[in-house]
From TrEMBL:
Belongs to the sulfur carrier protein TusA family. This is Sulfurtransferase TusA family protein. It comes from Thiorhodococcus fuscus. Residues 7-75 form the UPF0033 domain. It comes from the Bacteria.
Length: 76
């Protein structure tokens, strides 16, 4: 995983909570900062891809590791 400015552990939360928590966290961050989100909901892969496209934030990285999904989102 690349460098990030803030981390959000959304493990155990189901849709739409990981997205809602990420949105709230990103709103408090400065432009171009990177948020690392950890989720366990398999649906979060599609959700974060759609979230990035809808909000204009950049989904820098998306990967699955040990049953957890990791996302790096760069705030626009």
């Amino acid at each position: 995983m690349a460098d990030f400015d803030q981390e959000l552990d959304a493990s155990g939360l189901n849709c739409p909570l990981p997205i809602l928590r990420a949105k709230k966290t990103l709103n408090a961050m400065a432009s171009s900062q990177v948020l690392h989100v950890i989720a366990t909901d398999p649906g979060s892969v599609k959700d974060f891809d759609a979230f990035a496209k809808q909000t204009g934030n950049e989904l820098v990285e998306s990967k699955e590791e040990g049953g957890k999904f990791h996302f790096l989102i760069k705030k626009s």
